[in-house]
Amino acid sequence: MSCAITNGLSVDVEDWFQVGAFETVIDRGEWDALQPRVERNTHAVLDLFGETGVKATFFTLGWVAERNPALMRRIVDEGHEIASHGWDHARVFTFDAAQFAADLKRARTAIEDAAGVAVTGYRAPSFSIDARTPWAHTVLAEQGYAYSSSVAPIAHDHYGWPEAPRFAYRPLADAPLVELPVTTARVGGRNMPTGGGFFRLFPSAFTNWAIRRVNAREGHAAVFYFHPWEIDPDQPRVSNAPAKSRLRHYARLGAMAGKLRGLIARHQWGRVDAVVAAETGAIA
Asked: pLDDT tens digits for 20-53?
């Protein structure tokens, strides 16, 4: 285990057909006719966390929560945090402020009804709070969210806000809302991502190095994320998706569970709300 700092372990709970990589080839109207795998995969993630003795935060789509209330209750009953990932994975920059507020409300209602606990954390689908959405944090604050973990301070063809701070900050002068970006490593003057598909594709040594560096040299907690479908190599294939999307989505799925076990063993992990509380003291 790398050091005494507790890092944030997070799971973005969505099914294989709801990902941004397939949004141009799978219509939302088709979702209920497709093979659901998010319940079995999330149970497998919960089993893994139980075996390794860690707690995490599950950023969950309202669409998923509404259809899987028993799964939501298991997440809570086993001591994990449940938080919002929006209603149906629509990116925040496709909304205006009023539409975003409606999406937040619909998702939160579904998750709270299913899980039986209050939701105070949020992660935007595909990290889609960025320079195009200057109103997003205001809407979150108005709805009483304590924190967001929606910013990826990287340059990417689908998302990213490379100019954003790399560590926890308060985006609004008149509200206590905290933004906790997902972890990046500084390499050659650039911010490099460490979670999700990047974790699958990069050598494990890179992510372990990045977390140790953030903890020991920069004095902050890391925030790691992945998805339940990433531990499911047998999921259906979307043959008509763009080649780049297929590569990103399917590469090294079979290796993911083993890599996760190694990552969990090498660092100290906890819920994101606890990381927000610890990091808030360092915010100027």
From this structure: 999 999 999 999 999 999 999 999 999 999 999 9
* Sequence-distant (≥ 6) Cβ neighbours of residue 223 within 8 angstroms: 7, 8, 10, 149, 180, 181, 182, 183, 195, 272, 275
- Alpha carbon distance 196, 137 (integer Å): 24
Count other Cβ atoms within 10 Å, centred on residue 193: 23
> Residues 140-199: pLDDT tens digits?
999 999 999 999 998 776 677 889 999 999 999 999 999 999 999 999 889 988 988 889
Residue 1: what pLDDT?
47
User: Rounded to an integer, what distance in angstroms lies between the CA atom of residue 276 and that of residue 169?
Assistant: 10
| Integer Cα distance of 55 and 64 in angstroms | 21
User: What does 107-151 look like in DSSP terms, one character per residue?
Assistant: HHHHHHHHHSS---EE--GGG--STT-TTHHHHHHHTT-SEE---
The pLDDT tens digits for 71-91 are: 999 999 999 999 999 999 999
Is residue 219 helix, strand or coil?
coil
| Separation CA 192–CA 94 (nearest Å) | 25
- Distance between CA atoms of residues 265 and 267, nearest Å: 6
CB atoms within 10 A of CB 237: 11
The distance in angstroms from the start CA to the end CA of the chain is 29
What distance in Å separates the CA atoms of residue 227 and residue 12, rounded to the nearest whole number?
Answer: 5
